[in-house]
Automatic annotation (TrEMBL):
Record gene name: glpK
Binding-site residues for ADP, renumbered to this chain: T16, R20, T272, G316, G417, N421
Protein name per UniProt: Glycerol kinase
The Carbohydrate kinase FGGY N-terminal domain, residue ranges: 8-257
PANTHER family given in the database record: GLYCEROL KINASE (PTHR10196:SF69), SUGAR KINASE (PTHR10196)
Length: 508
């Protein structure tokens, strides 16, 4: 590259607990990071909200931090990529730029009555053929309907064409490119595939489903590929005139950042929740084992690449719950010290069905349980059981992937905040019976978004080049014997059944 060519790409990762901006160099190494957490708003049991304006303020601030830490200006940045918490629904007024309600977060279960109502005709799988998804509170669709049904004046405004919907990718890009002053209203195929409204084959909104939900098409963003120039940053901002050129939902971004481009490649990301994605190439595979079908990515005009996904709602957030709600630890990494004080879980299993159970069960009537308690059990066992819950849930999802694909995975690429935890990763390898492999860059979510944006502007040439940036950092090999593995899984599955059927119709 010549001297005048920008040397870096920046990714904005608008996550569930924080927003990050990360500058990457051409080798895919981290140059600088800005990060800010935002408030988790829990108005009632089962409700989870974010303030979209706080998120947008934080995004601008973390971009500034990342640039200034590395002494960079917009002239050093070739492109901006966006990745985001998926399914979280923001509805805003395009004439004022203000959200009409807080963002309803993917974990929120308030729309269960809407799910039941829609499932009364055709069952939970009525949209599965077209969208790849079961009807569940998880996806954006019922959240948008809830806002239109419950926020005063929202439906009228939406029907007048004044309201816009987006996952947080769309909200950030609309603001980044000018907001009320010419902001572009777009999303990419991966985010669109999490709404319950996109046809997986045509990659367009489905008017029939939109009609059934009563959501005006004018609210919906234009569906674009994951890698193309959508617009440029507005004149009033630090990155002005820089092309915004990549969008990937966070889990798809992590898949991309792990260079899991080929059919049969897979990764598992351990963050707030855990999400295992298995690349199925250009084929749309329908799961028979509780996985969902989603778009992995689409690069410009090239054919889309699809995936099977095992979504687990609660993993790292169980650690946060021990920290924030029980006060058992002061920081997430402290859990490792507690867990190491005991040899095993003392017979305790924690099934963190805080938002019901996602893959492979899809049981919205489940709620969390701690089982196997005896007078022997202490906080160290609880800490250990909390970590193990992540590994057991992942094993169940991996079993589903193996059953659907017919070809068992021989190793698992991992990333996300929890993979810093050695004890957890060893237990994960033990309980899976396959190697667990961590790359040097575990911020794969941001890296994937940077890659998508960089590809669109020619900063990188092709996915082969990206694949060469991937380097192994650490590998954990299974050490547990088969009988113990089987015993643990039997106990875990029994624990899971104890969470079923908890929510009755009159539960508040
Ligand atoms: N050493 C550790 N042991 C266990 N859990 C940890 C450890 N360090 C971090 N975590 C957990 O990892 C999660 C943070 O990981 P990460 O930053 O990848 O999350 P994330 O899912 O990207 O966040 P977001 O949802 O905001 O995108 C937190 O839930 C935290 O509790
Ligand atoms: Mg994340």
């Amino acid at each position: 590259m010549s001297e005048n060519t920008p040397q870096y790409v920046i990714a904005i990762d608008q996550g569930t607990t924080s927003s990050r901006a990360i500058v990457f160099d051409h080798d895919g190494n981290i140059v600088s990071v800005g990060q800010l957490e935002h408030e988790q708003i829990f108005p009632r049991a089962g409700w989870v909200e974010h303030d979209p304006e706080e998120i947008w303020t934080n995004v601008r601030e973390v971009v500034g931090t990342a640039l200034s830490k590395a002494n960079l200006t917009r002239h050093d940045i070739a492109a901006v990529g966006i990745t985001n918490q998926r399914e979280t629904a923001v509805v805003w007024d395009k004439t004022t730029g203000k959200p009409v309600y807080n963002a309803i977060v993917w974990q929120d279960t308030r729309t269960q009555p809407i799910v039941n109502e829609l499932a009364a005709e055709g069952g939970l799988d009525r949209f599965k053929d077209k969208t790849g998804l079961p009807l569940a509170t998880y996806f954006s669709g019922t959240k948008i309907k809830w806002i239109l049904d419950n926020v005063e004046g929202a439906r009228e405004k939406a029907e007048r064409g004044d309201l816009l919907f987006g996952n947080t990718d769309s909200w950030v890009i609309w603001n980044l490119t000018g907001g009320t002053n010419g902001g572009v209203h777009v999303t990419d195929v991966t985010n669109a595939s999490r709404t319950l409204f996109m046809d997986l084959e045509t990659l367009q909104w489905d008017d029939e489903i939109l009609g059934i939900f009563g959501v005006p098409r004018s609210m919906m963003p234009e569906i674009k590929s994951s890698s193309e120039v959508y617009g440029t940053v507005a004149g009033s901002q630090l990155l002005r005139e820089t092309p915004v050129a990549g969008i990937l939902g966070d889990q798809q971004a992590a898949t991309f950042g792990q260079a899991a481009f080929g059919k049969g490649a897979a990764k598992n990301t351990y963050g707030t929740g855990c999400f295992l994605i298995f690349n199925t190439g250009e084929e749309i595979v329908k799961s028979e084992n509780g996985l969902i079908t989603t778009v992995a990515y689409k690069l410009g005009d090239a054919a889309p690449v699809y995936a099977l996904e095992g979504s687990i709602a609660v993993t790292g957030s169980l650690v946060q719950w021990l920290r924030d709600n029980l006060g058992m630890i002061n920081s997430a990494p402290e859990i490792e010290q507690l867990a190491e004080k005991v040899e095993d879980n003392g017979g305790v299993y924690i099934v963190p069905a805080f938002s019901g159970l996602f893959a492979p069960y899809w049981r919205s009537d489940a709620r969390g349980a701690i089982v196997g308690l005896t007078r022997f059990v202490n906080r160290n066992h609880i800490a250990r059981a909390a970590l193990e819950a992540t590994a057991f849930q992942t094993r169940e999802v991996l079993d589903a992937v193996n059953a659907d694909s017919g070809v068992p995975l021989t190793e698992l690429r991992v990333d996300g905040g929890m993979v810093a935890n050695d004890a957890l990763m060893q237990f994960q390898a033990d309980i899976l019976g396959v190697d667990v492999v961590r790359p040097e860059v575990i911020e794969t979510t941001s890296l994937g978004a940077a890659y998508a944006a960089g590809l669109a502007v020619g900063y990188w040439n092709d996915t082969d080049e990206l694949g060469r940036n991937w380097n192994e950092d650490k590998r954990w090999t299974p050490q547990m014997d088969q009988a113990e593995q089987d015993r643990q899984m039997r106990q875990w599955k029994k624990a899971v059944t104890k969470t079923f059927d908890w929510v009755d119709d009159d539960v508040k």
